[in-house]
Amino acid sequence: MIRYTDKQKLDAVKAYRKGGGGLLATAAAQGVNVASLRKWVAGYDSLGDAGVVTKRRSNYDPAFKLEVLRRMSEEGLSSNQAAALFNVRRRSQVAEWWRLYSVHGEPALRPGWKEEQTTMKKPRRQRDDEEAPADDQRSREELLRDVQQLRMENAYLKKAQAFGSSQETLSARERTLIVIELRPHFPLAGLLRTACLPRSSFYYQQKALKTIDKHCDLKSKIREIFDRHRGRYGYRRVTAELKRNGWTVNHKTVQKLMIAMQLKSLVRPKRYQAFAGAVCETAPNHLQRNFTADQPNEKWVTDVTEFKVNNRKLYLSPVMDLYNREIVSYEIAERPLPSMIESMLNKAFDRLGSSERPMLHSDQGWQYRMPAFRKRLQENKLVQSMSRKANCLDNAAMESFFGTLKCELFYINKFENIEDLKVALHDYIRYYNVDRIKMSLRGLSPVEYRQRETQGWP
User: Fold this and answer.
1) At residue 391, does pLDDT exceed 60?
2) Is residue 254 domain-shared with residue 343, that is, in the same domain?
């Protein structure tokens, strides 16, 4: 916990009261915690400088505590407001007074009352100058009781050694486990006295031990899905995957469990840089940002993206079908030559039926304004469409794929060379088409969606 000097506190409060900014802005500018600043301001409004500077430890009498609780009850003050108003050193102390008074009444406000209730009464120690009664003068019941006490202490010490700790370092949970195990053989009161364990703490720990994690199996399944997809899935896709496997679960439950398990998607924020180069001969924007298609091979989009590994570059040129966002063809090369685009087109044309003539949309890159490229599209009777100048939103579907690819593969992995990256790209595109589900496709992968919708697969 950060400790601030009195000067830091007063400077922060005065800076806030000057009106230069809100709590967040002032706390950031002064380098203090915003929650602490909020308390200092409340204390300053009530008591001036005295409500901000560090207070000395003090014992409050019952009358003072009653007055604080009375003002809280009559004026509806919170514990923080009451602490600031009466200059109480610790805010949580007022809340503790309120709790004790509500449960136990006015006697609970006396100093030392809590220790009196929780301290176990220890047996009276025999003074050295007192003579212990001889064994023949003690009754049989007393001797049996002493024997049982020794047996109980011996059994407890053996159990404590099994935990690998001394009795003084055992936690309340470990001592409770020992008491539960020995309870069938010895009285509970004697075991608690031997373990130096308050009765209330024993029952609290016993209840906690009986609590079963009802989400144990669900957590295991979430972990399996998260690891299988290498941290690329957030809670929405994990929920969809669970439902595909027969689990009935709400996405909020999955989100809460993933936060508790510290499972967070490794996808990084997407960045975009606009291009404002010169424009030569271009095609009209026939797509008009209508990124939906009623059937496969109706609308295609394409683009080129760059990767850099150890000062060497690698280029990826894919074609995506807007019907199900499937990558119908792609080409990977170390230089963005026309041959790369030509090879990509040949693979894409092989996917077409005799009557299929899709629209092919791209940006205004030099590859797509070349006469050879435009001629190939005309020969195959494809309609060419281009985005407007320096407007990546006109080709948002392709840009979105590049962002997903880099966030789920390139940014979260370290590649030694471009050969390793090539292998990873081939593997990811297959994964993207076949295994990776999309929420916009009703929780199906692109290939599953196409097969179910066009071929009637179950």
Assistant:
1) yes
2) no
Q: What is the pLDDT of residues 218-227, one digit of tens each?
A: 999 999 999 9
Same domain, 205 and 221: no
Please indicate, yes or no, whether residues 306 and 445 belong to a single structural domain of this protein: yes
Contact by Cβ (8 Å): 23, 15:
no
- Residue at 406 is within a domain: yes
Rg, Å, the chain Cα set: 37
Task: Read off the amino acid at residue 15.
Answer: A
Residue 383 CB: number of other CB atoms within 10 A? 16
Residue 326 lies in a domain: yes
Residues 164 and 200 in one domain: yes
% of residues, the chain, pLDDT over 70: 86
Query: Is residue 164 predicted with pLDDT exceeding 70?
Result: no
The yes-or-no verdict on residue 120 having pLDDT over 70 is no
Domain of 222, in residue numbers: 216-260
User: Which of 102-116, 257-271, 286-300 is most confident?
Assistant: 286-300
Q: How many domains does the chain have?
A: 4
